[in-house]
């Protein structure tokens, strides 16, 4: 996989014109664009199609989490957008995950990624939610459940990549947010790592938002990150 293909820029700007402008500027500098709830709520499927028209791969990050039948219906609807990847929550359980995979079909388009534990959460947050496992244990538990239920890969913080890779093997796609270069701020992320170290740990794809989108020159920032991971 080429270096730039490993970088997906998170563009969650609800302003469609601004999102298109940024996506156009980043063409050729990143492997794809991640679109989340903020963008989708404001712009819907039409907005997604506008980004796809720029010939970007799109990672649709809506984190579906509902009863199996409802998630299956959402996956069937999302298939028509022709995105490269989309997300469900691993905590939705075995039947929900299997229903999502079945609804997607055998052609593996889009790839289905299961979110384990959000990168904004720490161990004390889990305790308040009534989950007594530490972060790494909970991520591994959810990751194994999702991968064994048919998900193509996982979304997890860079801190758990080594454990997931060693346990689940080389074929499980690991898509990793919480990436912060040394020259950027940490913002609201708690379990973070530099791009270079995340790749060394075993990440396949890095999801990077604000270090690129808030840079004075987003394209230059993306290029800088690509150069950093090229020597990993």
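^ structure tokens above, recovered residues below v
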């Amino acid at each position: 996989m080429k270096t730039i293909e490993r970088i997906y820029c998170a563009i969650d700007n609800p302003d469609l014109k601004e999102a298109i402008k940024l996506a156009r500027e980043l063409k050729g500098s990143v492997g794809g664009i991640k679109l989340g709830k903020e963008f989708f709520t404001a712009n819907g499927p039409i907005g997604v199609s506008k980004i796809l028209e720029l010939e970007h791969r799109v990672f649709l990050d809506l984190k579906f989490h509902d009863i199996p039948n409802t998630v299956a219906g959402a996956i069937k609807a999302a298939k028509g957008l022709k995105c490269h990847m989309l997300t469900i929550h691993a905590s939705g359980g075995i039947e929900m995950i299997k229903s999502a995979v079945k609804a997607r079909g055998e052609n593996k388009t889009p790839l289905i990624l299961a979110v384990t534990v959000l990168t904004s959460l720490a161990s004390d947050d889990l305790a308040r939610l009534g989950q007594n496992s530490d972060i790494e244990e909970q991520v591994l538990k959810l990751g194994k459940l999702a991968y064994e239920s048919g998900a193509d890969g996982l979304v997890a913080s860079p801190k758990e990549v080594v454990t997931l890779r060693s346990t689940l093997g080389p074929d499980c796609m690991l898509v990793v947010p919480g990436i912060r270069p040394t020259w950027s701020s940490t913002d609201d992320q708690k379990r973070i790592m530099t791009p270079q170290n995340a790749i060394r740990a075993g990440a396949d794809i890095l999801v990077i938002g604000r270090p690129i989108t808030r840079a004075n020159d987003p394209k230059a920032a993306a290029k800088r990150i690509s150069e950093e991971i090229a020597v990993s």
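The chain has a mean pLDDT of 91.
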